UniProtKB/TrEMBL annotation:
Residues 3-57 form the HTH lacI-type domain. It comes from the Bacteria. It comes from Luteimonas endophytica. The keyword Transcription applies. Residues 305-330 are annotated as: Disordered. InterPro entries: HTH_LacI (IPR000843), LacI/GalR-like_sensor (IPR046335), Lambda_DNA-bd_dom_sf (IPR010982), Peripla_BP_I (IPR028082). This is LacI family DNA-binding transcriptional regulator. The keyword Lyase does not apply.
């Protein structure tokens, strides 16, 4: 049976009206009582019926956004999409980042309570036991973006696994066999799914071939380091698949510095299709994720109180860097 507001009131030893006032951030509730009610609601995982109704009153007219970082084109595009929908709906945004630190993210989420009417969260920590229950108020509607599955929470995820399979198929069809992979952070859901797609595609196409994985951090610097490491290998790869475009561009810079021709000597591909990908030379083959659309869809799902439209699957964008004709794009 689902937990009701009466259950919270009974457990916290207060009236139903007090629970309602505490959960809705009214000022006429003692701070000690508010903390007790919020603690009980979180422990019981109380979720008000039709949680999105709390948005209809526009109590603060503000939506909280908590992201791993604000640096880079991916997060810039994500925020652009969120901001566009927020403007359409007459809402403000309160944005915070936590730079991969679970304690900082938990603090950021708790700090949003009473200040926002709903939350958009991108977190690698949703699988850790008790993290969401301790950090997210049960009374605050939330949508998780690219964070994997989380019981009791709405999620919107890009099909990173399927996208990685498609990119590997493209590289393999181009005749490439020694394909190195620059992976993203271990605690990132998208990074894990893209690595899984690379490994599975390699095993299916070339059984027994050892994966060639270099660790990256989703930024240009780690892609540049990985590119240098590949150039020092006894036998260089004939293709490199980076788990995101920023690392692919860093790798491309390392190859250019060394005078290694792309794609003549080593083919290169990325993932995300950030705006810069089409303006470098050679143009970067990548998997297109409409990042701004993802942010907009997530906010609409939050505001409309439903699961929202699923994010469209990544689309292969073939450019010069993989050595195939751009006409092969689909």
């Amino acid at each position: 049976m689902s937990v009701t507001i009466k259950d919270v009131a009974r457990e916290a030893n207060v009236s139903v009206a007090t629970v309602s006032r505490a959960l809705n951030g009214h000022e006429n509730v003692a701070e000690e009582v508010r903390k007790r009610v919020l603690g009980v609601a979180d422990r019981l995982r109380y979720s008000p019926h039709h949680a999105a109704r709390s948005l209809s009153s526009r109590r603060t007219q503000t939506i909280g956004v908590v992201l791993p970082d604000l640096y880079g084109e991916f997060f810039s595009e994500l925020m652009r999409g969120i901001d566009q929908v927020a403007r359409e709906r007459g809402l403000h945004l309160l944005v915070s980042s936590y730079h991969g630190n679970p304690e900082e993210q938990g603090a950021a989420l708790r700090a949003m309570r009473g200040r926002v009417d709903g939350l958009l969260v991108m977190s690698p920590f949703v699988g850790e036991r008790g993290f969401l229950e301790q950090s997210l108020s049960a009374a605050l509607p939330a949508v998780l973006i690219n964070s994997g599955a989380a019981e009791g929470h709405r999620t919107l995820n890009v099909d990173s696994y399927g996208g990685a399979l498609s990119m590997m198929q493209h590289l393999l069809q181009g005749g490439h066999r020694r394909i190195a992979f620059i992976a993203g952070p271990d605690d990132n859901h998208d990074a894990r799914e893209r690595l899984r797609g690379y490994r599975d595609a390699l095993e299916r196409a070339l059984p027994g071939t050892a994966p060639w994985v270099l660790q990256g951090d989703f930024d240009e610097a780690s892609g540049h380091r990985a590119g240098g490491e590949l150039l020092r290998a006894a036998q260089r790869p004939d293709a490199v698949f980076a788990a995101n475009d920023m690392m692919a561009l860093g790798c491309l810079f390392a190859f250019n510095q060394a005078g290694v021709a792309v794609p003549g000597q080593i083919a290169l591909a990325g993932f995300d299709d950030i705006p810069l990908a089409r303006y470098v030379h050679p143009g970067l083959t990548t998997m297109r994720v409409d990042i701004a659309d993802l942010g907009g869809r997530a906010l609409r799902a939050l505001l409309d109180g439903n699961g929202g439209d699923p994010a469209p699957g990544p689309r292969l964008m073939v450019r010069e860097s993989s050595g195939a004709s751009p006409e092969a794009a689909r």
